[in-house]
Design a protein that fits this description.
With 41 residues, the protein is α+β, with helices and mostly antiparallel strands. Helices cover 27% and strands 24% of the residues. Strand 3 and strand 4 form a beta hairpin.
Length: 41
Amino acid sequence: MKWNLGIISDEISQDFEHSLKVISELGANFVEIRNLWNKNV
């Protein structure tokens, strides 16, 4: 069974661009977007 690593973006930072950079550096291929610009999506 293959596992895919995903990360919730706002658990890293409220700055979405920064979160994506960190997530990419960690090698994750999936992002869960829960909040953007302090609003639930």
